[in-house]
Fold this protein.
Amino acid sequence: MTKVDVSNAEQVNSWIKDTVSVFGRLDGAANVTGIAGGDGSITETIDQLAWEKMIAINLTGVMICMRAQLPHLTVPGGSIVNVSSTSGLRGLPNNAAYASSKFGVIGLTESSAAEYGKKGIRVNAVLPGPIDTKIFREGEAKGLFNADVVSAGTLMGRMGQAEEVAKVLVFLLSDDASYVTGAHWTVDGGYAACGFYRAG
Ligand SMILES: NC(=O)c1ccc[n+]([C@@H]2O[C@H](COP(=O)([O-])OP(=O)(O)OC[C@H]3O[C@@H](n4cnc5c(N)ncnc54)[C@H](O)[C@@H]3O)[C@@H](O)[C@H]2O)c1
């Protein structure tokens, strides 16, 4: 296992180079890293450094990883899956930097899918809804989300588990999804389907 900071291009480039030299090829890559951050500010009080950190990790970090991965991906058949969020589809009040970064991941995914589609490389995005992980619980502790409220806002009445996202991500990476590219695939218990933040 190699630890890298995805916002550091040098570290990411040497990580991908080393990976390819050990395994001889790169069939797929999942760019999952993200931070939730956010201190509940409204737009006029956004802290510049906090904004820049969020964009650097959540959006530029994905670009840095893709830029390093794409030249090595198997042609045809290589595939990338980036993790965006249902917050990449609609605004997230009091956490505009997060939503902006996740909208950006979708733009990056679609643009790249168009650039590489004819080579037989697929690029897709997974958009998790409320998933019970550290990032969610940290946001909840800051008062940014509430598990009961978001659970009620899903069509299934519950939060998701990381494994439920991972299974879709693995499917999209695999040849079973051979005609899926440029997609934003929600894994959200229906959170985005009928509106967000619905009461009970
Ligand atoms: N949990 C949710 O409700 C939810 C909803 C929508 C989208 N997402 C997205 O899913 C992805 C995974 O989040 P999670 O819920 O598993 O959260 P998590 O906090 O459990 O995992 C995030 C991981 O990113 C790593 N990380 C943070 N900064 C990094 C950096 N600069 N370089 C390399 N690694 C770094 C952390 O060490 C951690 O392992 C994120 O992109 C997140 O935005 C999560």
